[in-house]
Amino acid sequence: VSIDELGRAAAAELHRRAASRVDPTVKLKQLRRMKRTRTAASALAVVGACAAVVVSFLVIDDRPATPAATALNGHWFIATIDGSTVTDPAIDLHIASGHLLGGDGCNAISGSVRVAGNQLSVPDLAVAGADVPECVTAYATAIERVLSGTVTWSVERGLLTLSRPGVGRLVYSGKPGETPTARVPAALADATWELTELDTSFGTFTSGYLTHTKVRIDRAGRITVAHRCFVNAGTVQIQGAILDIRNVRLRNSLRCPTTPNQAAEQRTDAIIDNALFGSTTWSIADGRLQIKAVGGETTTLLFRDA
Amino acid sequence: MGRTSGAETDLPGQSSAVFSLRPAETFEVFYRRELRGLVAFARALSGSAAAEDIAQDAMLAAYRRWDLVGGLDAPVAWVRRVCANRAASTLRRRGIEARAMVRLSSRRSDGEPTAAEHEAFWAQVRRLPRRQAQVVALHYIYDLGVAEIAATLGCAEGTVKVHLSRGRAALSSRFEYPSMEQP
User: Fewest 10 Å CB contacts: which of A90, A273, B101, B122?
Assistant: First the structure.
């Protein structure tokens, strides 16, 4: 008797028991009851959460005045790390509209900037390899350590200081208010990318409907995302492997015939847009563009050059 | 992350509308066909006490999102993965039970395996590291190959090969059986 024979016999035994003990008809009735119960419980939880939000708005905020978060906006270049002078144009931060995009010398970094008074955090900090030769990993490590937690920030005399006691202190000098450039690489720009595959945490979609979605990015950093029935447009910022798609608006609706699957198609378009808009990473291999959502949802979109 | 679309903007996990990009079967048909196998799979990974609840929970998760899950290329892979993850959570909570079963498996029998050996086999499977146990259970319960297991668990085929090989080797040594087959 081999272990495989034992395994198959043991599996057959479990199948026999399940077949004799489990009645799908009875179980299906139980399942329907469970669904009704849990749906009701979920609704109650939502009502409770809404009530909590309302109450939180009613609480008067009597905290002392804090620096305005808009002072963070701008293009900042590293000046010192833990007191040591560092001059490296690849270590920078673009901050605008509550979003951060930059480099730590070795990697591209991005994320949402959350500001509470003089405290700042980047809860969804994303770090992607940017293929920078001869970078100083000690600097990159120091920067990532500081940005990976809640830091105290200040902007004084053109210097942005980010410090975490016991962890590190970064000082950037900058040009407040300057907006980052698009920096769209030639491989990505001026091509029409047709969606062929959508991988979500639920599984893989390869329906032919996906090919209705076509993405185009021009060298000026403008992006259009065309679906079967409408077109969205926005702007992109690119830093190494990070592709940041922002300011997306519905540009125009297209005339499209009604189909039996219309609701499903709208749902698909929404999933694609959810994955696409915001911080993503991108790569091109074998003529296929891969865009991967950065953050909570693990969604990957695969495109071919149309 | 910005969320903008001309259509609805729910995340996949929050879907509530109809979602089917291919002609999906009804949940009822799916449920009747897959439930028993799923119970067997849950039992392999969690032991007897909670298997039906785990399988039912996994089915409930699919039922609540059937508009989305039913449109997947392989809804059964999704529900098996949910079941595997829930079984792992249950087992963590009841960690002692599997170890208690080990004592049953300390000797090798001659000839046909007995029911006690079947129990001991699954008890040993549950002692394996979580991923190895899932791979081994999928392999034997559903007779799946490396590619199908990889698709079910959402990992690389190479990873599955390693887990399956190590899992078999560990089981063989515990039962003193030879491990000869390769999937």
Answer: B101
Tell me which of A88-97, A196-205, A274-283 is least confident.
A88-97
Residue whose pair of structure tokens reads 């050996």 in the numeric block? B117
Interface size A-B, in CB pairs within 8 Å, comes to 209
Q: Which of B134, B122, B138 is nearest to B174 (CA)?
A: B122
> A111-125 burial, b for 16+ CB within 10 Å, e for fewer?
bbbebeeeebbbebb
- At B112 the three-state DSSP class reads coil
Q: Which chain A residues are closer than 8 Å to B59 by Cβ?
A: 31
Closest CA in chain B for residue A98: B1
Identify residue B23 by its one-letter amino acid code: P
Question: What would you measure as the largest C-alpha separation in chain B, in angstroms?
Answer: 67
Burial class, B94, CB count within 10 angstroms (exposed 0-12 / middle 13-18 / buried 19+): middle
| Chain B from 133 to 172: CB within 8 A of any A CB | 136, 139-141, 143, 168, 171-172
Average pLDDT over residues A95-115: 77
C-alpha B56/C-alpha B65 separation (Å) is 14
Residue of B nearest to A254 (CA): B6
Q: Which residues of A touch B5 (CB under 8 A)?
A: 232, 269-270, 273-274
Residues of B in contact with A270 (CB under 8 A): 5, 7-10
The two structure tokens encoding residue A185: 């690489």
Mutate to test the interface with B, among A267, A276, A281 (most CBs of B within 10 A): A267
Alpha carbon distance A190, A211 (integer Å) = 18
Residue B100 binned pLDDT confidence (cut-offs 50, 70, 90) = very low
Complex ipTM: 0.74
- What dihedral do alpha carbons A252, A257, A263, A268 form, nearest 10°? -60
Distance between CA atoms of B6 and A267, rounded to whole angstroms?
Answer: 10
Q: Which of B26, B147, B34 is CA-nearest to residue B82?
A: B34
Cβ contact, residue pair B40, A205, below 8 Å: no
**Lowest pLDDT segment from A256-260, B8-12, B149-153:** B8-12
| Phi, psi for residue B11 in degrees, rounded to 5 | -75, 160
Q: Distance (Å, rounded) from C-alpha A159 to C-alpha A79?
A: 9
- Give pLDDT tens digits for A252-272: 777 777 777 777 787 788 888
pLDDT in tens, A21-35: 888 988 888 888 888
Considering only CB atoms, B122 lies closest to which of A10, A201, A268, namely A10
Q: How many CA atoms within 13 Å lie on the side-chain side of A51?
A: 6
